[in-house]
Structures are given as structure tokens and as C-alpha cells.
Amino acid sequence: MAGSHSNDMVVVRKEGLYCVPGDFYIDPWRPVPRAVITHAHGDHARVGHGHYLAADAGVNILKSRLGQDIHIDGLAYGRSVQHNGVAISLHPAGHVLGSAQVRIEHRGEVWVASGDYKVEPDRTCAPFEAVRCDTFITESTFGLPIYRWQAQQSIFDDINAWWRSNAAAGRCSVVFAYSFGKAQRILSGLDPSIGAIVCHGSAEPLNRVYRASGVALPPTCLVTDIDKAALRSAIVIAPPSAGGSTWMRRFGDYSDAFASGWMLLRGARRRRGVDRGFVLSDHADWPGLMTAIAATGAPRVIVTHGSIPTMVRYLRGIGLDASGFDTEYGDDEADERAAEAAAAAPVADTVAAVDPAAPAAAGAGDA
Predict the structure, then answer these.
(1) Longest dimension (CA), the chain
(2) Which of 122-136, 145-159, 351-365 has the lowest mean pLDDT?
(3) Of the ranges 33-42, 45-54, 173-182, 332-341, which one carries the lowest mean pLDDT score?
(4) What's the rounded Cα separation, in Å, for the pair 141 and 305?
(5) What is the tens place of the pLDDT at every residue in 325-344?
(6) What pTM value is reported for the model?
(7) What is the distance between the alpha carbons of residues 323 and 312, in angstroms, rounded to a whole number?
(8) Strands 51-55 and 197-199
(9) Pick from 117, 157, 233, 266: most CB atoms within 10 A?
(10) Distance (Å, rounded) from C-alpha 106 to C-alpha 241?
(11) Cα–Cα distances in Å, from 297 out to 110, 136, 142, 317?
(12) d(CA 117, CA 282)
């Protein structure tokens, strides 16, 4: 579903989203000379670009994932720089540490590319900031009216209660969560008085970057740093790629859970084969998406990766000039599976089984 007009400031090229007057790309999926990066998930931040620009808070995360030798400049949130007559500024997206929306202004016209975002604040990153603009490029990962998240503290309470119950029974608790972003968010909500907190080797280096950035996380350790007896009351944060691996054998008779927004769907937990599913997402739900779009005041909205047709149809129904961009962005699950060389099948395809037309009207009054 093409969303381009002949004089658009941002268009889709084979390399990615291209700012025409600025001659740079936003989260390009093929190597380009100049890239502005919204955040360090692998579908948005890739190797091979000549120069990277990202929010200050995301620079060390990008280096940890793409290599220390990348040519990158950090930009403080809200500070503006000029490039080829285009003013560029980065604003918090509330997705993960260092995530940003890209505001670009040229000859009085303002566009904002959101990257990925959520509107509920959390302890691990700067909260989402609505940015007024003429055109807003929004994600739609959970862009169906059925997606409505509970307050994150209630999810943290559920995780801690589950862990406490397992620990009392002498059973290790294992939460499968993606190593960048989700793992640290869960850590921020854990009660360390229950027992030891063990992190997989893919998450622990990122924990260090978060702590160095001033994010408060409870003490964690690697599985090699803890004795077998202490494991029986511990909680383990591991990537989904660890499930079924020999690494899991050391935990004995453990209880496992998966933390993802997809856990809201019937059948997703069953396909994952875990004991519990905790509905916790770093993306906006349907009300969050609608709130964010309204707060921009943008009369034009371009929808990317996710439930594009549903959101476009709904936004047109409320009077906005809405269309979609076809991109190569995925979801965080696809990104982290690639980053961790996991072979597990995605649960995102379960969205295709949902008929969006029926609940759209029901959700309209809540937008």
C-alpha cells in the first residue's frame, strides 16, 4: 500500500526510508552512506552504513551490537542539527534504551518517523514524547483493537508471585525474554529478596550497558557464578533461543514462562510450550497507538510494519490522510531470533488468524 506523494520529504527506496532533501536514510535495511537510527534492534540497526547518527543513550548499545568501530555520532534528545538544509532532532520513543523518534524539518514542513514506541513509561528508558508534526510515520506491530495491555506493575506483580511460589517449592523459574530491552525491563520489576537473579550470557553484557547509562537494575549473575542449591530458588532470564538447549539442563525441574505482547493471543503460549505467558510488550497497544497519533496533531499518517491495512482503514475513517509504507522492518521477536541465531518459529503469524474488521468498530470509541 504505497503512501508516497510526488513532493514527499520521506520516500521508500530499495535501501530503506529516504529523506529526499536531506540525502540520508532512516533505519535503512541495506548499506548506505548516512543513516539515522531510531534504536538498536536488528531490523532497524544494521551493519555496513558509512555513518550513523543516533540518540546519545543508544550509542553504546549500538556499538555493543554492531561493533565498536562503527562511525557513529550521538545526539542529545531535543537537540537539533542541520544536514543539507534539513533540521534533524531525536525525541524519546519509550521503546528501549536509546530509542528515538526522528523529527525532520525542511522549509517549514515537519515529519516525524517514530521507529518503534510505547507510551507507558518504564524505568529502563526515557518516556515517549509526543512531537507535533505534519506527517507522522508510525509502527503498527500491535495495531489491532484486540491489543490492550494491563499496567506493567500488575505484570511485574504476577511474575514475582509466580517466582515466589516456585522458589517456595524449590523449583527454578525461567523467563524467556529477548536479550535487549525486554530482559532489562523485566529485571527492573523483579523483587531480588525472593532469590538470586541469573541472566543468560546474551543479556548480561547489555545489562552492563544499561547500568553504565544510569538505569537501576537489581544484581544479576551468570549461571556459572551460582551454586546448584541456590538455583532452586532463583529466577533465570534467558532468550527464547535457549529453550530446549543443553544450557537448560542445569536447572533441573524448572517452571518456565514467556514474556511477550503476543501472549495475549490464545494459542501463542501453547505453541511456545511454556507453563506461563506474561503479556508484556515494549510496543504500544491499540489505545497507545491512537493516543500517540492524536497527540502529534498530524493530519497525515503513514503506517509501517504490522497491521497496516487495519490501521489505515481506521485512521481514514476518523478523517486522517492515512496510507502505508512497505518496509523490511520486522518485530522484535524476529530481530532477536536472528541476533541469537535461534531457530524457533515466530508467533507473530498468529495475528493473521485474527479478523480485524469485526473488532475495529468496537475499538473505535476507545481510540
Answers:
(1) 66
(2) 351-365
(3) 332-341
(4) 6
(5) 988 887 555 444 444 433 23
(6) 0.88
(7) 6
(8) unpaired
(9) 117
(10) 44
(11) 11, 9, 21, 16
(12) 7
Check if the beta carbon of residue 114 is closer than 8 Å to that of residue 329. no
What is the C-alpha to C-alpha distance for residues 234 and 44, in angstroms, rounded to an integer? 34
What are the DSSP E strand ranges found in 216-279? 235-238, 255-259, 276-278
Give 228-255 pLDDT, tens digit per residue: 999 999 999 999 999 989 999 999 999 9
Encoded amino acid at 327, one letter:
T
d(CA 18, CA 178): 29
Q: List Cβ neighbours of 168 (8 Å cut-off, separation of 6 or more).
A: none
Mean pLDDT of 167-189: 97
CA distance 29 to 207: 26
The span from the CA of 323 to the CA of 30, in Å, is: 24
In terms of Cα–Cα distance, which of 222, 215, 230 is closest to 184? Answer: 215
Please state whether beta strands 80-83 and 86-92 pair in parallel, antiparallel, or not at all (unpaired). antiparallel
Give me the pLDDT at residue 5, please. Answer: 67
H helices, E strands: number in the chain: 10, 18
Average pLDDT, the chain: 89
Q: Identify the CA nearest to 308 among candidates 138, 167, 193, 148.
A: 138
pLDDT tens readout for residues 303-315:
999 999 999 999 9
Q: Please, where are the H alpha helices in 54-141?
A: 59-66
> Coil, strand, or helix at residue 82?
strand
